[in-house]
């Protein structure tokens, strides 16, 4: 044994040396494991996806196949099948978002027939159950002028296309649905009496024509071989001065139309007025078939009774009592009957299922008794802005926090005794809480939803989503559940912005979020303030300004209530401060306004002169480049961005300092050029002084898009017209090896005329990007990654190191030591870097990121037709244990070690004692 | 060979871009107006800068001298921590109407620097100016007095907006070619044996095996005793 140990000793030393030398082997092998993707069993653990289809345009119940569905065609050019019971998307087809994908007709027989596009048209047949394309044929009309008003319908297995030429004639073409074979060519029906106000109720085309006071109601069956016009004086039906024709929202029975508030049917080549009154001018009227004859359904939003639905028997004019109710609790603004199906049960009772689409783009499937089976919030298919809001801390934590808050403590507990009792109180509360959780156990906790309080890592947040329809949602980021919704019908969300003016960190005060948008009609400023946790209006509530807003910002200083004031610069260059009391806090505040079309950018200095705040125009630049350029994008740094390091350490131990100008704005302009076809100009302007820091031109480039701006780097995409590909240009600004201002000193844009050193490069993006964002973490310690959404439906996570402009083609020794990746003109987009694995996201428009309490983790929400939420860890989860971490093993090892320590101590003591006796 | 010509063309264009990245040449007239001691008007004459040729970029600067009134007004602005604004109107051969640019410096800083400023005019390749920036020079200087009048000390720079870099595919392909050639040459040369080439990988593995082999009998040895 002794012999062996002597032999081993030098060997062991050798092994240590060897280990030292293979150190870099270990590093290398650990790098292989550096995959960014998730494991299969982690799918859905940190992420969720919600599929939307957009506002429903046409809908029909599928009564043919066994699995009951609703087939819908939407404003977003989506054809989809929705499960009748749950409202989930069974299958979905997304057409082009341009006019070529516009759905003109949805018809259900044993298969689905759609007509899409606008000259050329595509007629397609789809399988009902699977949504598979069965056949397709195209149609191009020779004349393109009047096709905007053309109508399509299917009659007796034939597709009818009608093109009205107002004041002249109607062109009707009939095609075989499946083959596109033109049965009887195109027939021209003379009709000088048609105009824009005509309505179609297949196959009748009805108009009001003639001079006022002598008007005629005219109608014609456009598909019959013999031209037969039904003509009656209008005075027979209505005495109203301005008569309006309206089609039914849903009609599956008899051709007919609405004349003002009167229902008129066309039966046996005659008009027939029905004596069922339309209760409200805004009511949506539908004509549906049921077992006891046709029914007239009406729905409207009654001021007193809320959402109301009534049904009358068409033949008898009697009200059907079992269908019809009103419900105050339902908020369905301007309801529209998209589809109705009525059957009869064994007990001779009507059973109706009604799909109602509201002005807020939501669709509700309502059953008989007013029970809402499901609701689809289709407004979420068009999200325009997202804000992640922190949740408030729990009451218990708030109590502890306030106890340790120095200022608060000094105010409230001046005496030692008071502080001591408070201490005891809070500790008792903590004990209570602990006992309660122990007693409740796991079973109860699993049932109830987690309370809306901040979790330890601040991963649980509320996302406030502002949609195009003017509906605002509060969504739980972990589950994707809608917590609250608020519909603001007058809000035009074009260029709307959201600000969190007070977070939930200041316990006695609620969180405060403000949306600055435009009024739908006047175009003046509309400001909506709400509590983002509960969705209730706070503060200014909904404020309609009487002037248009030019620019808005949030004051960086908070007032006594911890509220950041909203600063609005209006069209007349006046400044408004909300709340007014914060005006004295305005100091060193600057704003800039870029005019899109004239490309003039103006800078304003805001000053408080003791009474009011005024804006003074201090700089202006003209980026129009001789009048042709227009501003496409203007991006400044994200507010409240933290920067972890002020420089980069170079291999020779010197530091390359970053130019961290917090006021830097990137302005992208594009326009035609006489020599180079189209040019894109990127200009870096200081938002305070108006000084240009750097500018460059891309020749033969178009569509600058998706700018990214953080710390000292900038990136943007553009389309290279010459090479016909997308490229990404990246810039980094450096001060050089020496700092301009000493460490810790505040940066000032107004002093010094030094220009930063600009590094730039361009890379080829081998895909069509749709959205881009930078990862955001709390302290910016973690690497920055770029999230690039592609038109293929994937979101690719790229390290900034790949986009860095300092990548040299063949790095020399030092650059290699620094770890710069050698330059390659094409960006790699590996499949492992796709953060949404195989969950394809259709028509992505934006990616939003937010930091969490965990430094390693950034929260990501991608919006578009789908919503996708996930979290990413750009530098891996260095501050988290792995999911499969063996807690059991480590506790056993720890316990064994403690045991061994104490036992050896005991034995050692005994041995010492024995030694002492010897 | 074709690649070589391509390479040359790329370099030649790069050379041209750096010297003359401007497509257009002509004169440039800058009328400078400031908001100081202007009586009733908002802006009044401060001077002018003329360039005969944009390409050469040699300016002729002609500015007024500040008198005591000017200085008083400037000191008043400085006391209020206000801005001293300069409006520039640029006329070129193509743009005879003129385009206005506004820029400001802190009056305090302008005074501290002895009325010296740096003027940067950024010009696009098509000859259009996008911005005229006035900035104070970053050095504290005493006022230069010339018989009761103060001289403005302006430096003018014409900044040409360069062409942005494009993805550098040509030189990347060249580099790949070179690498391939080098590899081919290297493979010809390196005809050592497998062991001679990869001994540094084999030895650690061998040592591992040896050690694990050596520890096992030791572990079994006490059992045997």
UniProtKB/TrEMBL annotation, chain A:
Residues covered by the ER membrane protein complex subunit 1 C-terminal domain: 710-917
Keyword Mitochondrion: no
Gene3D superfamilies for this protein: YVTN repeat-like/Quinoprotein amine dehydrogenase
Membrane topology: Single-pass type I membrane protein
GO biological process: protein folding in endoplasmic reticulum
Keyword annotations from UniProtKB, A to Z: Endoplasmic reticulum, Glycoprotein, Membrane, Signal, Transmembrane, Transmembrane helix
InterPro entries in the record: Beta-prop_EMC1_1st, EMC1, EMC1_C, Quinoprotein_ADH-like_sf, WD40/YVTN_repeat-like_dom_sf
Any one cellular-component term (Gene Ontology): EMC complex
Spans through the membrane: 887-908
Superkingdom assignment: Eukaryota
Compartments in which it is found: Endoplasmic reticulum membrane
Segments forming domain EMC1 first beta-propeller: 38-145
Similarity remark: Belongs to the EMC1 family.
Subunit-level organization: Component of the ER membrane protein complex (EMC).
The protein's name in its UniProt record: ER membrane protein complex subunit 1
TrEMBL record, chain B:
Membrane topology, as annotated: Single-pass type I membrane protein
Ranges that cross the membrane: 198-215
Compartments reported by the entry: Endoplasmic reticulum membrane
Tagged with keyword Secreted: no
Major subcellular location class: endoplasmic reticulum
Keywords linked to the UniProt accession: Endoplasmic reticulum, Membrane, Signal, Transmembrane, Transmembrane helix
One GO CC term on file: EMC complex
Signal peptide: 1-21
Similarity comment: Belongs to the EMC10 family.
Protein name: ER membrane protein complex subunit 10
Gene name, Swiss-Prot/TrEMBL: LOC114248516
